[in-house]
């Protein structure tokens, strides 16, 4: 799996929770698009399930879930990334 594939999957999971996720840029602040604390928890659970990973308590912070890119970076660090 590569970074682009991870980003596409993360974008799809965001799209399940927010309208028009295709319009969200990689560095857009997700809370500006309607991601609130409740939806963040749901997104976290969906990503953990999708990638069969578990986030550590210290990884569950605003900075790691602020943008599509920051989530992709976090996931890429937890799974084997090729390219």
TrEMBL record:
InterPro entries: ACP-like_sf, PP-bd_ACP
Organism: Streptomyces tardus
Chain ranges of the Carrier domain: 1-79
Protein name: Carrier domain-containing protein
Superkingdom per UniProt: Bacteria
Ranges that cross the membrane: none
């Amino acid at each position: 799996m590569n970074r682009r594939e991870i980003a596409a999957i993360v974008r799809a999971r965001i799209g399940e929770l927010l309208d028009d996720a295709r319009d969200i840029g990689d560095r857009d602040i997700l809370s500006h698009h309607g991601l609130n604390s409740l939806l963040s928890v749901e997104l976290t659970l969906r990503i953990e399930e999708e990638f069969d990973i578990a986030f550590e308590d210290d990884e569950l912070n605003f900075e790691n879930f602020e943008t599509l890119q920051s989530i992709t970076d976090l996931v890429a660090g937890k799974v084997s990334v090729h390219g």
